[in-house]
Write a structure and sequence with these properties.
Elements lengths: L1 E8 L2 E8 L10 H13 L7 E4 L3 H10 L4 E4 L15 H9 L6 H15 L4 H10 L14 H4 L3 H17 L5 H21 L6 H15 L1
Parallel strand pairs: 3-4
Antiparallel strand pairs: 1-2
Helix pairs in contact: 1-2
């Protein structure tokens, strides 16, 4: 599991990527994910405000149970391919992805309505699916605009998982689960250290100012 961890440094805030834990499970069930998240909480994880993941049912249920205070952001565009023919108009999906580059939620919803009106007759299954699930993919709009490009997708996790796949495929067959876990944890530590040495991933001052602006609106 990867995370963006805010760290207090005097009056300033910074946030760097961090690898929190690596565990093995027989399958991605609700119980395995729930146990994983509970272990993190027992180790001191708290204040989780935002979670980005794919729409795995077991993971989503575990997030709701263990991290009920966190907003959930579903990764969306890739799933759209399941609801269109192989020779889909490239403009259709390109315009759909543009919804995630709008300045705010109001603008995104307005342009989405125009997109649905344009493509409803051509791709009714896709449009019906988008109408049902699109809100789950727009949670990142509650964050500062400067954070959108980092937290609207799972690209960071996909890159990390691709590297793990590449390194484990070299071994092909592990003699036991412990040997696999040692290799993956070693990779995770290496990535974690690289992240800590890199530039900060998010500017938490943006989030602090965003919260200040939101308080009068919520009153």
């Amino acid at each position: 599991m990867a995370a963006i961890t805010p760290r207090a440094q005097g009056p300033q805030w910074s946030a760097r990527r961090a690898r929190l834990a690596v565990e093995l499970a027989n399958r991605e069930s609700r119980s395995s994910w729930r146990e994983f998240l509970l272990q993190l909480r027992e180790r001191g994880l708290s204040g989780v405000a935002f979670v980005v993941s794919d729409d795995h049912a077991g993971l989503r249920q575990a997030i709701v149970e263990v991290l009920p205070e966190a907003a959930w952001q579903r990764y969306f565009p890739g799933n759209a391919l399941d609801y269109v023919p192989r020779k889909v108009d490239d403009d259709c999906l390109r315009e759909l992805r543009w919804r995630y580059d709008r300045r705010d939620l109001t603008e995104a919803r307005r342009d989405l309505a125009a997109w649905l009106a344009k493509w409803q007759a051509t791709y009714p299954k896709l449009c019906s699916w988008v109408e049902e699930h699109i809100e789950e993919t727009l949670s990142f709009y509650r964050l500062p605009r400067q954070h959108h490009k980092h937290l609207k997708s799972i690209n960071l996790l996909e890159r990390l998982n691709e590297e793990i796949k590449r390194r484990t495929h070299v071994v092909r067959i592990f003699p036991n689960p412990a040997s696999c876990l040692r290799l993956v944890r070693g990779l995770a530590v290496e990535m974690h250290e690289n992240w800590l040495e890199a530039h900060r991933y998010l500017n938490m001052d943006d989030l602090r100012e965003h919260k200040k602006e939101a308080l009068p609106m919520a009153a």
